Amino acid sequence: MAAVAKLRKRAAQLREAVDHHNHRYHVLDDPEISDAEYDALFRELQALEAEHPALRTADSPTQRVGAAPATGFAQVRHELPMLSLANAFSDEELAEFDKRVRERLQTEDAVAYSAEPKLDGVAVSLRYEKGVLVQAATRGDGTTGENITENVRTIRSVPLRLQGGAPALLEVRGEVYMTRKGFAAINVKARESGDKVFANPRNAAAGSLRQLDSRITAKRPLAMYCYARGVTSSDVSFDTHAQVLSAFREWGLPVSPEIELVTGVAGCNGYYESIGKLRAELPYDIDGVVFKVNSLRAQAELGTVSRAPRWAIARKFPAEEAVTRLLDVGFQVGRTGAVTPVARLSPVTVGGVTVSNATLHNMDEVERKDVRIGDTVVVRRAGDVIPEVVRPLKEKRPKGARKPKMPKVCPVCGSAVVRESEQAAHRCTGGLFCGAQRKQAIWHFASRRAMDIDGLGGKLIEQLVDAGLIEHVDDIYALQLEQLQDLERMGEKSARNLLAALEKSKQTTLGRFVYALGIREVGETTAQTLADHFGDLDGLMQADEETLLDVADVGPVVAEHVQQFFAEPRNREVIAALQRAGVRWPAGTPRTTDRPLKGHTYVLTGTLEGLTRDQAKARLQALGARVSGSVSGKTTGVVAGSNPGSKLDKAEALGVMIMDESELEALLQAHEAS
Ligand code: D41
User: Among residues 45, 59, 137, 185, which is most buried (max CB within 10 A)?
Assistant: First the structure.
């Protein structure tokens, strides 16, 4: 085939694919591929058409933005078209944008830009006549959208009537979005009732806006931020975009508080960076920032090309999702023996970082997502979190793709792998016999928030264990200079430094020491709580489960792990050896005064009005009471909220004291005061 014919065929393929996925996404709200994959297709088509303009057709998806309206909503023609935004994917592309702006404006001076977060929601246009909201429409293809007035009227942040000074006619453009929290909440409900679960907050916002029944929309946690004008009557006038936004605020329209004025490329880059840092803390998703030339006169001078203003650009964040091949599934053994499936991936850049491993969490997740070796998978890496496999693209599954299988024995030590009932995790039963668990136990022991042994990191521990120089944590204090300096990559100086760090670490606190032991479910906070409560190690080591349950915030699971840990003779030996080696901490004072509700057990049932169940539980426990899930003859009292369950019946049958919420509150306050 001639080269040109080949390119023509590829362009046609790409157009068809982009159209198809556009329809799935914009009309059906049910995408088949990730945004990253879609972007790749779209950009390939754009590049092909840019290089060979003869291949561009009038109906190419690059020539229009958005998709045809779904049936069911009336069509609305925007009086002024809703423009689209050009993208910059790198610092270079942003610098080129700024250069073009300055060239067209014939200025050497740094340009003032309005810098805004780019909300990942649904673009909407509102029309206010005489200050009253008369129409709301989706963007659609930019010229014609759908009339969603009834739905938008349910969004509480959208004013139905503008405040003083608003013009006779005003079209406002903005983004309707859903917070991540709101999204999570509606998905929980959807799962419970078997309804459709949304893939992300943006799809949830889009799906909510296209409800034909606006009573359903009203129950969805939608919000809006406004960022531009359409037609405006001439009874108001402005010089800058910033003035427009502050007028919006005055009229009662919601405007993002993160919007700032910046100067030149340096200002843009600084804003991009600082919003990038803030991103994880924002309650909603953003996929980049938008820069707009602030002067309206300059905007007019710059004009638009192919429906995108020359005066604005979206600087996108690196995609947090990417598509790659799942080459294999490995199994990793953690400190507590949990055996975790790990995806081995064909390396791919996600959020600016190369990823070749991603967690699959546990076998239930593997099963639920139906991930198979050989699949093409979507990988996500958001902020600092560990990359994870989101889902496979099933339509791309090759024949013979295999389901990953949990090994029957530990890949490190060969001990049996078991699954405790009702737990998602599989575990290696090798305990400290397992090299993986031992190395990580030592690593945890030495870590900064535990014994804080400077210089004893993962690589060195690996070397020491493999060379047979240490087996358990107490062995590290017996290390000798000669042994250390003979190790690879270790000179006399670093060996001496390590010995000094070891010596220094011996003086510690009881809280750190308890945390360093690596007892299951005992994190830093719990370790400190135990240390404070018992004051010394002996008291803690001798505590039975009953006694442990009296400690505030210690529940049955923690109590059982703590008790089991100290009941194990090998653990006691290690502790004794550590103390012999000189590990010590200042003596504390155990709590001698009994807390007022010590020995009392309460059961909570039904819904409380003034406080959550967790709050009630925490306050009871802080006073020394136990909060149990079931009623027995030993129960002190049952607190019954509204719609109590069978626990109330049982309490009545057993003659246990029944209290209402106000009585609970009185009891708590009486003791908390003293
Ligand atoms: O936050 C946004 N998603 C956002 C979108 C924004 N902050 N500003 C925007 N500005 C425009 C222009 C410059 C064309 C008025 C936009 C969009 N447009 C936009 N949203 C969807 C398509 C275009």
Answer: 137
